[in-house]
Design brief:
With 309 residues, chain A is mainly α. Helix content of chain A is 72%, strand content 3%. Chain A has one domain. Chain A is globular. Chain B has 358 residues and is an all-alpha fold. In chain B, 72% of the residues lie in helices and 2% in strands. Classes of the chains: A mainly alpha (309), B mainly alpha (358).
């Protein structure tokens, strides 16, 4: 029982991290109808920027306080992501308005190659590490309830907390600020939003900026867990089943989907994996999402797709 | 002046319905095929065959298959790499385990097994649509990646997990030299190209296009969505499977599952979209573009670096290649979202008037 709970909690934590990446997908899809395959590349790019700035700031500016230089590095990386968002909007998306979904999808794949190349050219292609002082020691809990207690990774706990804060912050931003209202209006209906005077261009830049910051946070957390390297961009492929399971247009869907996929992956790997040779996490997540989709084709929380002739 | 159908009168339904109703098109295509069979062998050297022509032929075949599914039936698939893998490994198992099975039969059996998998993973398309389906097809991709890596039976229990074939021959004729391989692949491409062209202009092809344009409306006028979608999945994955078997047997010789990874699926989708969705011709253009582009960048970039006075390191070269590749694709999508095939048809329209202004 203890082992089962441990796996379950591990899965929930991992799921929280998947939702972070999935959130980036959902934000952009909701606001602009672009299925942004470049989210993974953005995570890598942001993490690379953050890792290198955290090296360069103490070296050139002489700031040695770890909290301070990490903060500065984070801010600089955020600025870099804003620039990327602005460039994507002005160089690519502006010219592809009204194109089909597949064309836009391919364009974001093009952006993926571009970002991977640029990121590694500017920031280098070695393995870097991000150290924002996340606790590495595992935590023992419920020792009185279970024999041997539960082993919980503190790092995951902190990461999940950060993810939860980010989601809460985003929800507030969407519900309470005027920009957030404009974003929701654009998501509901582009034309109607434009006709009451919401500037679409600016909204799209803002959405990409927000997605950039989400990518930065995801990159920071994943980067400090796994190290910043090229394989980080494959996190996007792990997050895709989360997105379709939760529904492409739903923020809560991304969270719940992430938790379901995280738990499903871990439980399948631990309890089913040994019988079939292991390594089944990645396709199990997709098959799980596929099974859910067979019953709800628009994902758990997605808007119902109504076909009209 | 030369390219126009004036004066070519059709007196029978048969002549009106032929593949290329315009005589110039007919002769043009025949000339190109004849040139590919008879002219190219004298012109190309070994590097040309190995690095460009053979990959181009096989990937064009695969792109043709993907185009039937994505371009004609409108079902976006990111699992083409998996169908290629199934074709390759099924053909391999027939080749290794069945004594004396002819090579062509092995390759076609690869296609048959890819078809079965294609139909299986096509079933969700009856309920799941659009981008949801695209992501769902990735399930096939990752499942196959895993299965061919972990289940040793598929690779004939080889210790390294690598499958390899040698001594290929068809009816006593060896397929060893690049030239022989080239002709073998070319023959496949011509046969399948003709087959696909005829399929898409027949009743079933029109059903696919109706489903693509609007599936509810198609169902209302009496097209069975299940039959149309699953047949598109079947035909597409058969062609992709045969292409996968050719890629493994003829181009690679010995291969690992990584040869058919998810990036291969993306590559095929790029070919279809850059070449032109819903166009047989577009598949060839797209394949040529995607095969030649990285090689061209690889050759041009160091030259350019030398010219400016910088030596380009291999790491920088890969990254710059990625940058240019990504930028070119985005640029191309912006300039011509309907693909190279559109440029081709625009060119043909212009040629009709040339050299007169109206």
């Amino acid at each position: 029982m203890g082992f089962f709970l441990e796996t379950l909690i591990g899965g929930l934590m991992a799921g929280m991290l998947y939702s972070l990446v999935a959130l980036g997908f959902v934000l952009i899809f909701k606001a602009s109808g672009v299925f942004n395959f470049a989210q993974g590349a953005m995570v890598l790019f942001a993490a690379l920027a953050m890792a290198r700035f955290a090296e360069w700031v103490p070296e050139y500016a002489g700031i040695t306080n770890p909290v301070l230089f990490n903060l500065i590095a984070f801010a600089l990386a955020a600025v870099v992501m804003f620039v990327v968002a602005w460039l994507v909007e002005y160089l690519v998306l502006k010219h592809l308005v009204n194109q089909e979904g597949t064309t836009l999808l391919m364009a974001t794949l093009g952006i993926t190659y571009f970002l991977d190349g640029v990121g590694q050219t500017i920031f280098g292609s070695d393995i870097y590490k991000i150290d924002v002082g996340m606790p590495k020691e595992p935590l023992m809990a419920f020792q009185s309830v279970f024999e041997g207690g539960l082993l919980i990774s503190q790092e995951d706990l902190v990461a999940a907390a950060i993810a939860a804060c980010l989601v809460a912050g985003l929800s507030l931003f969407f519900q309470k600020t005027s920009t957030g209202r404009a974003l929701r209006a654009v998501a509901d209906d582009h034309q109607a939003a434009q006709s009451i005077g919401i500037p679409l261009d600016r909204i799209w830049v803002i959405v990409w900026c927000v997605a950039g910051v989400v990518a930065l946070v995801a990159g920071m957390i994943w980067g400090s867990k796994l190290g910043v390297q090229f394989s980080l961009s494959e996190v996007a492929l792990r997050a895709l089943p989360v997105v379709i399971l939760g529904g492409l247009t739903s923020v809560p869907g991304a969270i719940i989907g992430g938790l379901i996929i995280g738990v499903g992956e871990k439980l399948s790997e631990v309890f089913l994996g040994p019988y079939v040779g292991g390594g089944i996490e990645i396709w199990f997540a997709y098959v799980l999402a596929l099974v859910f989709l067979l019953f709800r084709p628009q994902g758990l929380f997605g808007e119902k797709i109504i076909d009209r002739v | 002046m030369f390219y126009r159908e004036n004066g070519q009168f059709k007196t029978t339904y048969r002549s009106d319905q032929q593949i290329f109703p315009i005589a110039q098109d007919r002769w043009g295509v025949l000339l190109i095929v004849a040139f590919a069979f008879l002219g190219v062998p004298f012109l190309a050297d070994e590097y040309m065959f190995r690095a460009i022509l053979i990959p181009f032929l096989i990937l064009a075949l695969a792109a043709l298959g993907v185009n039937i599914l994505v371009g004609y039936c409108g079902q976006i698939s990111l699992g083409s790499g998996a169908f290629m893998a199934v074709g390759a490994y099924a053909a391999y198992n027939f080749f290794v385990r069945v004594e004396g099975m002819p090579l062509i039969a092995c390759l076609l059996m690869g296609g048959v097994f890819a078809t079965l998998l294609g139909i299986f993973f096509g079933i969700p398309s009856l309920r799941v649509k659009g981008l949801y389906l695209a992501v769902a097809t990735l399930a096939a991709q990752f499942f196959c990646d895993w299965a061919f890596l972990r289940i040793k039976w598929f690779t004939n229990d080889s210790a390294s997990g690598t499958a390899s074939v040698s001594d290929l021959s068809v009816m006593g004729l060896a397929i060893q030299t690049p030239l022989q391989k080239y002709l073998f692949c070319l023959a496949f491409l011509v046969v399948f190209g003709l087959l696909a062209k005829n399929l898409v202009r027949s009743a079933i092809g029109r059903e696919w296009m109706a489903i693509r344009d609007m599936d509810v409306a198609a169902a209302v006028i009496g097209i069975r969505p299940m039959y149309a979608k699953l047949s598109a999945f079947a035909v597409s994955s058969f062609i992709v499977g045969v292409a996968g078997a050719l890629w493994a047997f003829v181009h690679l010789g010995s291969w690992e599952p990584a040869a058919f990874s998810v990036s291969r699926s993306f590559q095929l989708l790029f070919m279809v979209i850059l070449g032109g969705m819903g166009s047989i011709m577009g598949s060839f253009f797209g394949a040529a573009f995607i095969v030649v582009l990285p090689i061209a960048i690889n050759i041009v970039l160091p030259e350019l670096g030398q010219w400016v006075g910088i030596t380009v390191s291999t790491a920088a070269l890969t990254h710059t290649e990625q940058i240019i590749f990504g930028a070119l694709i985005v640029w191309f999508l912006i300039v011509e979202p309907h693909g190279l095939a559109r440029l081709w048809s625009v060119g043909k329209q212009k040629l009709r008037l040339w050299p007169f202004p109206h």
